[in-house]
Amino acid sequence: MKLFDVYPLYDVEIVKGCGSRVWDADDNEYLDLYGGHAVISIGHAHPRYVSAISEQVARLGFYSNSVINSVQSRYAEKVGEISGLTDYTFFMCNSGAEANENAVKLASFITGKSRVISFGKSFHGRTSLAVAITDNPKIVAPVNDTHHRTIVALNDIEAVKRELAAGDVCAVIIEGIQGVGGMGMASDEFMKTLAVECKNAGAKLILDEVQSGCGRTGRYFAFQHYDIMPDIISVAKGIGNGFPMAGILIAPDIEARYGMLGTTFGGNHLACAAGSAVIDVMMEEHLMENAARVGAYAAEKLSGLPHVVAVKGRGLMLGVEFDEPIAAIRRALVFDKHIFTGAASNPCMIRILPPLCISEKDIDTLYDALLDILK
Predict the structure, then answer these.
(1) Span 344-371, pLDDT tens digits
(2) How far apart are CA 276 and CA 52, in angstroms?
(3) Half-sphere exposure at residue 72, Cβ-oriented, CA atoms within 13 angstroms
(4) Burial code of 140-161, b = ≥16 C-beta within 10 A, e = fewer?
């Protein structure tokens, strides 16, 4: 049986990782500045993480959510502690798209309304509802219902006000920082006004922190740079450091009722053991502080490269925008310099989404490699 084609593939098989490095089947070493789509947060094969999963699977790998799961409860407490959102409730699932599906569904249940506002260049996932609120017509299939969504330009608060005035909006969903869309960021004024307007209109504000969360921007959530409190927050990717897990954090004024949400695998024992280890390592090794420090260094250093017109983003969620398409540059980084980076919908942008344990020296390595390639 052949595999279904998902992405264009580099002719490289990665078989091993440690920290911010990975190795291919021929034992060539690479600097990982992409973290497998922002998934690797604490680094590859961290011994604390490996031990936690190994010990848990030796005891119990899985049982259903119809019985008490103290591993799940401990993990939820740790998420509250590291995020500061101790009064929120936590529903656990398996992927970012699933988290956004449940976030929007919950908002619709609570408000009794059906329309969702999202933003230009947004990406919220590939499942039916998630793709319907994503601004990318190429991945919207005929079965995806787009009749109940409205897309407006990021930072256009007047457009949001006009749509909210109709009274049929259950939720506004916005990324903490747009990842696939090219590191677009809401302004401080826009985000604060958006939170007020949603409250006044009775619409729930959903922060999609699937890529921008888990400490990547220097705070646990990117929205915390704006001093607002969303109604629902979706999380995934870095919270499991490679183990598939996701969830939504729900504000205390939203009542959870049996039957609204459900899951078979969400919050399973292995996932929660992995998630707890991720938080332990992040706190003990001060990885959020490292993300803020190294990210600021990277933004300043990389902005000095020839042909770079802007460095966008925050912390270790950065987009380096060039004055020309970067496909050949990224390929040269992989095969000539052994450095992995990411792409975006902007063909001139390289995305930097590394493990949060990288150092300024790793940024220097990238700078020197790009400088050589650009010559």
Answers:
(1) 999 999 999 999 999 999 999 999 999 9
(2) 8
(3) 23
(4) beeebeeebbbbbebbebebbe
The token pair that represents 213 in the structure block: 């969360």
**Sheet order of strands, 115-119 included:** 89-93, 246-250, 232-235, 204-208, 169-175, 115-119, 149-152
Here the tokens at position 66 are 């119809």
**Residue 32: beta bridge partners?**
340
Place of tokens 């098989």: 13
Residues of the chain with pLDDT below 50 are: none
DSSP assignment of 271-337 equals: HHHHHHHHHHHHHHTTHHHHHHHHHHHHHHHHTTSTTEEEEEEETTEEEEEESS--HHHHHHHHHTT
Which domains, from first to last, does the chain contain? Answer: 47-284 (3.40.640.10), 286-325+334-351+368-375 (3.90.1150.10)
pLDDT score recorded for residue 142: 86
Q: Would you state the pLDDT for residue 33?
A: 98
Q: What is the pLDDT of residue 192?
A: 98
Q: For residue 206, what are the contacts with CB-CB under 8 A and spacing of at least 6?
A: 100, 103, 104, 107, 171, 172, 173, 174, 230, 231, 232, 233, 234
The predicted structure's pLDDT at residue 147:
82
d(CA 38, CA 19): 14
For residue 257, the model assigns a pLDDT of: 83
Strand, coil or helix: what is 366? helix
Q: Please enumerate in sequence order all residues whose Cβ is within 8 A of that of 45, keeping only pairs 6 or more positions apart, or say none.
A: 16, 17, 18, 19
The model's pLDDT over 71-82, given as tens digits with 9 standing for 90+, comes to 999 999 999 999
